[in-house]
Specification:
The complex is a heterodimer of chains A (about 160) and B (about 120). In chain A, helix 2 crosses helix 6. Chain A is built from 6 helices and no strands. With about 160 residues, chain A is mostly helical. Chain B has about 120 residues and is of the alpha+beta class. Helix content of chain B is about 20%, strand content about 35%. In chain B, strand 1 and strand 2 form a beta hairpin. The chains are: A mainly alpha (about 160), B alpha+beta (about 120). Chains A and B meet through helix 5 and helix 6 of A and helix 1 of B.
């Protein structure tokens, strides 16, 4: 049990380090709420390495802790909305089968942005922010691909490590 | 699990399609919240659409009178020869700008992002 907790802790710590790196390297599409989401590499890779409840917990804990450390109070809400929608989409696509890891990651990336947009619209109380929907779709597609490639490389390396 | 499959392509195409369609549907009708006046390629000023205002723009190229009223902006007077800017009427959308070519004047409507503070007026 403690071994499991330790392992999950390592994953969360890794994800938080990725979050922090992202905070250090500001990356803007010029639109609010668009990030690279490098920490999601851990989540995507985790989906193919760990059990679903474990990955879910890693994602939630990472979002909450990172939000408290690196963000302001409201940002946790946006991140959670995006993170949970993204997780659900990725879990669904993986379960349905027929999608590659990158495909799953792309879906995750897109839904992450969609979730954040929806949360923002709800908090702001108006739909004007919906203007950014098209850009966020494409941005999610691009970041999702990148993250998918990274996560795929990690999963491949780890599996190979296990085989040796 | 690593190779791209047909379903991935469908997903990507679907996303691009959704982006394109939503862009066409949303982009056209977006009401802006601020007026940006560009004179000779430089930003002259930014003004909220919400506040009624009249601006006299005089430059070496000529004179234009810009009026912001009831959430719309228009060019009401100009001393350019064809007065095409005045004829363009009013706008409150990002997709329509008012342009006075001989005076090198562009009156754009834009939508601010949440990062920017609400401007009362910004003069450059």
């Amino acid at each position: 049990m403690s071994k499991k907790v330790a392992r999950l802790g390592v994953f969360v710590a890794l994800a938080m380090v990725f979050s922090y790196i992202e905070v250090l390297i500001p990356f803007h599409f010029g639109i609010p709420g668009v990030k690279l989401g490098i920490a999601n590499v851990v989540v995507v890779a985790g989906l193919y390495l760990l059990s679903v409840p474990e990955v879910l917990m890693i994602s939630v804990v990472r979002i909450v802790l990172s939000g408290l450390l690196f963000g302001n109070g409201v940002s946790v809400l946006y991140s959670l909305a995006g993170g949970m929608l993204s997780f659900f989409a990725m879990w669904l696509l993986k379960k349905v089968k027929g999608f590659s890891l990158v495909g799953v990651s792309i879906a995750g990336g897109v839904m992450h942005n969609v979730g954040q947009l929806m949360a923002a619209a709800w908090i702001l109380g108006n739909l004007r922010i919906a203007v950014y929907f098209p850009v966020l779709l494409v941005a999610g597609l691009l970041t999702g691909s990148m993250i998918g490639l990274l996560a795929g490389a990690i999963v491949r390396a780890l599996c190979r490590m296990n085989d040796e | 699990m690593y190779k791209m499959k047909k379903r991935d392509m469908i997903l990507i195409l679907g996303i691009l399609l959704a982006a394109g369609v939503s862009y066409l549907l949303l982009g056209k009708n977006v009401q802006g919240d601020r007026v940006v006046i560009i004179l000779d390629g430089q930003e002259y000023g930014t003004y909220p659409l919400a506040q009624d205002r009249e601006l006299d723009i005089r430059s070496e190229y000529g004179y234009n009178r810009i009026v912001i009223r009831q959430g719309k902006v228009s060019v009401t007077e100009a001393d350019c020869p064809d007065k095409y800017c005045v004829k363009q009427g009013e706008t409150s959308k990002e997709s329509k700008s008012l342009i006075c070519l001989p005076h090198k004047l562009v009156v754009e409507v834009r939508l601010g992002t949440e990062d920017q503070n609400d401007v009362d007026a910004v003069a450059q």
